[in-house]
Amino acid sequence: MLTKASMLSILTEDRVEGQLIAVIAALVGWTNIRQCSTAEQAREALAPSTVLVTGVLADDSQAGSLIGELASRGVVVIAMTPDEACTAESLLAMGAREVLLQPSNVSEMYRLLQRWRHPEMRSLLATDDLTCSNWIGVEHSEALIQSLVRVAAAKDTCTAGHMQRMAKISEIVAKYVGLPQEICSRVGSVAPLHDIGKIAIPDQILQKPATLKANEFRVMQGHTIAGFRILASNTSPELNLAAKIALLHHERHDGKGYPIGLRGTEIPLEVQCVTIADVFDALISQRPYKSARSIAEAMDQIQSEVNTRFSKTLTRALLHALPEITDSIGVSGGVGAMRQPIRLSAPAL
């Protein structure tokens, strides 16, 4: 009979990251999960049958001392660090049994927590790739995606309503672009994860009420790469698409976007659908700092950015899809008041 670790403890200052780890742990089968905010809480709670997931900075001597102390008591320590200078070798030397670079990749974290749930299976699972890597495509994919959506919503200031609407709009636009139904459904399912990388952005930047300084904006841009790293998977088509969207949703048709600078058809159609849906819903939604625009005004704004931010193909698809979109998300108002109606006979770019 396999011996299971009795408790998983999560020690991190980032509440949202702790929630993400707890979600993954619950999917693995952990039932006794405790979140700690201080090293003292961790010391009091942990027994030899415990696995501790903790964040560590390169210059965090207190964390290093904690790892060594707990490891000597038989606690399994999984150390996470955002600092590549804090090498795996140094953390392993302190007593950590596993090391992950933050923000944690979902698949990697799942496999680690799965292995340590049944310590005796560790060597078997390390070699049996089929057992430990196909989990996400079989029974957990939809549950995990929905859990990740809730994690993303907890960090972002956007409303849950925005996420639901832009998901529906993304799926509908994908249909009008001509993508297969399976892909359209997949786009709608993972679209709300496009900004999940923001869980890696400090709150003082993410929630700053004023315009970001240049160095702060560069940090903010990093949410695209962070989102890709969190979601990338070798086995799940859904998470692979979500990772692609998270990485590329700020690319522009004219090549002036980030983080890569793709242009035109280099940007996957699925990504373009999510980008234009996100912008469209933001335009027609009320926020504390702005009033909602009418559908006609939103389309005028999007049309003004054709061939710069958006392609004519996607803008045309959005226009064709408007009747279905308005029915789906429960808004009214047509495009009759558009100042510059799109020339639908123009060739697609």
UniProtKB/TrEMBL annotation:
InterPro entries: Cyclic_di-GMP/3'3'-cGAMP_PDE (IPR052020), HD/PDEase_dom (IPR003607), HD_GYP_dom (IPR037522). Coiled coil: none annotated. SUPFAM superfamilies: HD-domain/PDEase-like. Residues 137-334 form the HD-GYP domain. GO terms for molecular function: phosphoric diester hydrolase activity. It comes from the Bacteria. SMART domains: HDc (SM00471). PANTHER family: CYCLIC DI-GMP PHOSPHODIESTERASE TM_0186-RELATED. This is HD domain-containing protein.
